[in-house]
Amino acid sequence: MVHLGTVVSAAGLLILLHAGYSAAHFQQFKKPSSALGGGGGDSAPLDAALEALVGFFVCVFGVLYSADALLPIKGAAGGGKSLDSAESTREFEVFEHRGRSLRRRVASQR
Q: Where do transmembrane segments lie in this chain (predicted)?
């Protein structure tokens, strides 16, 4: 059985195709407005632009309607560890650093 969301998405796609055909048809029959051959504007007619916008939103609604519920993300690669313990590595744990030696050097230069 076909879901309602699939039918709505297909209808939105047909609306988008018709808007594109209408804009291409308009560009084919548009007359040049100057002697140099340039058109009066390269924009699509308002009805084709609105039809494309409506078709886009109908497609989005159909896809969202036919989508299943979102599932929770499970970290299968972590082996049951929390994210903090899985991402923390020993390379970034610094116990000895140059702070003491720099403090001594600055104190000896005074």
A: 48-67
Residue-range domain boundaries for the chain: 4-31+45-66
| Alpha carbon distances (Å) from 49 to 27, 33, 39, 99 | 13, 22, 18, 65
Per-residue pLDDT of 14-71, as tens digits, reads 999 999 999 988 888 876 655 555 555 667 789 999 999 999 999 999 999 998 888 8
Residue with tokens 């519920």: 69
DSSP track, the chain: ---HHHHHHHHHHHHHHHHHHHHHHHHHHPPP-STTS--S--PPPHHHHHHHHHHHHHHHHHHHHH--PPPPP--TTTTT--HHHHH--GGG--SS-THHHHHHHHHHH-
Chain-centroid distance of CA 36 in Å reads 41
